[in-house]
Amino acid sequence: MFMGFGGDIMLKDNVLKALNLQVNREFYSSYAYFSMALYFKDKGLKGLEKLMKKQAQEEIEHASGLVDYIYNRNSQVSLETVEAPHFSFSSAFEVFETALEHEKNITKSLSLALETAEVQRDYMTQSFLQGYIDEQVEEESFFSSFIKKCALIKEDQLSLIVFDNMLTE
Ligand SMILES: [Fe+2]
Ligand SMILES: [Fe+2]
Predict the structure, then answer these.
(1) In terms of Cα–Cα distance, which of 116, 103, 27 is closest to 63?
(2) Closest ligand to residue 26's CA
(3) Which of 31, 57, 88, 154 is paired with 22 by a 20 to 30 Å CA distance?
(4) How many other C-beta atoms can be found within 10 angstroms of the C-beta atom of residue 91?
(5) What's the 136 CA to ligand 2 centre distance in angstroms?
(6) Burial of 156 (0-12, 13-18, 19+ CB in 10 A)
């Protein structure tokens, strides 16, 4: 029998704390993207509204995945207050710039959690978080591509409407 190898399945306190914090950040991401969907809704841009609502939904799934992992490690999730997003945008370009900035912060936050797991030699959590970090490559590049498209559209409102229509298809 291997004693002291890997140890308890329960998460160490600081790893659990980092994962719980990440749960909160994923819920905040969802809330933030939902608020961006509302900006587009207000403008009557249904395609972009749908796109950001889908992003909001994906963030709930990220939070849910973390919650499942915490439970699988025989540990308790603590759901904290989710901050309200306070953004004001003047263009679709700004929305996507803010979204990209936010994803970069999420990548940083996941990296810090991974470092905590590394210090604790918690290889299960390291592997789990690595999956989330890998996904961030796509998350960041998704919003970068929209920044580029919106930069091309610039102030041309008609192009924005045409672009939005393409997204509803
Ligand atoms: Fe996420
Ligand atoms: Fe994301």
Answers:
(1) 27
(2) 1
(3) 88
(4) 15
(5) 7
(6) exposed
- CA 4 / ligand 2 centre spacing (Å): 36
Angle at the Cα of 70 (from 65 to 71), degrees rounded to 5?
100
**Domain parsing of the chain, residue ranges:** 13-168
Centre of ligand 2 from the C-alpha of residue 142, in Å: 10
Tokens 């263009």: give the residue.
91
DSSP state of 90: S
Write down the CATH number for the domain with range 13-168. Answer: 1.20.1260.10
CA distance 36 to 88: 9
Q: For 9-64, write each residue's pLDDT tens digit.
A: 899 999 999 999 999 999 999 999 999 999 999 999 999 999 999 999 999 999 99
CA 1 to centroid of ligand 1, rounded, Å: 39
